[in-house]
Amino acid sequence: MGDDPSACQHVADPGDRFCRRCGAALPTESEETFVGAFGPVSSGSLPAVGSGIMAGVPEGAGVLVVRRGLNEGATYLLTGDVVTAGREPDSDLFLDDVTVSRRHAQFTRSAEGWRLQDTESLNGTYVNRQRVEDRLLEPGDEVQIGKYRFAYLVGGSA
Fold first, then answer.
1. How many angstroms separate the Cα of 78 from the Cα of each of 3, 115, 132, 143?
2. Dihedral sign, Cα of residue 8, residue 10, residue 11, residue 13
3. Other beta carbons within 10 Å of 20
4. Nearest 10 degrees: CA dihedral of 30, 32, 35, 40?
5. How far is the C-alpha of 115 from the C-alpha of 78, rounded, in Å?
6. Using CA atoms, how far apart are residues 20 and 98, in angstroms rounded to an integer?
7. Rounded to whole angstroms, how far apart are CA atoms 58 and 155?
8. What are phi and psi of 51, to 5 degrees?
9. Nearest CA among 137, 147, 127, 145 for reference residue 26
């Protein structure tokens, strides 16, 4: 395949940052940040992501909504003090795809909210399409782990 990310000739969807077949990074057309201009594909039971708020969840609780990847539309409530994410079956957030490292990232509760730390993953961890090592999440942020994209929301009144 060489060093050319388009060498596998797989057709990527608009907005993909990685090839779904080979996992190679793809060139992006723009570096705009995720602001939730589009709601998640769902039956209408999920919140508008732009507000960053999810009703029906305890005030201040962290929630991840799958916007792209297996189980699109699924929601995950962040509980406890540390939530691990990776391809390792014992991960709290099990992401079964080759673009995800075995121990890819972790979410840690802090006094300010939830922090996301990359745990030396091969493909990196992204918030709003920028690679991060450690970042305090803000409501409405887009989190990308491998080919999975999540909207980070917090509980409250919309």
1. 38, 11, 19, 14
2. negative
3. 17
4. 20
5. 11
6. 9
7. 5
8. -75, -25
9. 147
Query: Across the 158 residues of the chain, what is the mean pLDDT of every consecutive 10-residue run?
Result: 50 61 56 30 41 76 88 87 95 94 96 95 95 96 95 82
Q: Is the dihedral of CA 81, 85, 88, 89 positive or negative?
A: positive
DSSP-assigned states of every residue in the chain: -TT-TTTT-PPPPTT-SB-TTT--B---S--PPP---SPPSSSS-SPPGGG-EETTS-TT-EEEEEEESTTTT-EEEE-SSEEEEESSTTSSEE--STTS-TT-EEEEEETTEEEEEE-S-SS-EEETTEEESEEE--TT-EEEETTEEEEEEEES--
pTM for this entry? 0.67
133 and 109 in contact (C-beta within 8 Å)? Answer: no
